[in-house]
Amino acid sequence: MQEDAVFILPLETCPHLPYPAMLLDGPTVERLLADGDHFTLLQPEGRIDHCQAYGVDLSRRDRLRILDAATKQSMLSIRFESANIYPQDWWHAVHKARHMILILGAVANLAMPSPDGDMLYWLYGHAHAAVLSLAVYTWGSGVGMLMPGQ
After folding, report:
1. pTM score > 0.90 for this model?
2. CA 127/CA 106 separation, integer angstroms
3. By 3-state DSSP, what share of the chain in percent is helix, strand and coil, each rounded to 5?
4. Which pLDDT score, from 0 to 100, does residue 22 have?
5. Residue 106 pLDDT
6. Which SS3 state, helix, strand or coil, does residue 13 take?
7. Which residue, 1, 91, 121, 137, has fewest beta-carbon neighbours within 10 Å?
8. 132 with 52: CB under 8 angstroms?
9. pLDDT, block means (10 residues), the chain with 150 residues
10. Using an 8 Å Cβ cutoff, are 123 and 25 in contact?
């Protein structure tokens, strides 16, 4: 059985994107794409729409969850072996922005060198993307997107 793969796009490689981004590859991609028209085809200089159907839980450094906004159920939950999966600058930037771009595509396309230096070059016209809002929770000590101590 194939597992989902996540690739965090370093901030310096995608300065043209309005928010920090990550790429998701695997069986969950088909489920998310089949669930409606929530993701747009990724194009150079193309618009990436905000998705109201899903949110993202980045409240902990060792976990990623994609949430169905209507049911609050997890569409995807990945627990990482290390709490250092997210680069520090990316982690701070995504929480400051309160949004991130989720790109649904093949991780293998990132390995091919592009003629213009754009890391996303081989994903254009093939991958889909949407801007997701970060989930907000109530904690014993207040309200926020980060679990206390993260």
Report:
1. no
2. 7
3. 20, 35, 45
4. 93
5. 92
6. helix
7. 1
8. no
9. 83 89 91 87 91 89 87 84 81 91 92 86 94 73 51
10. no
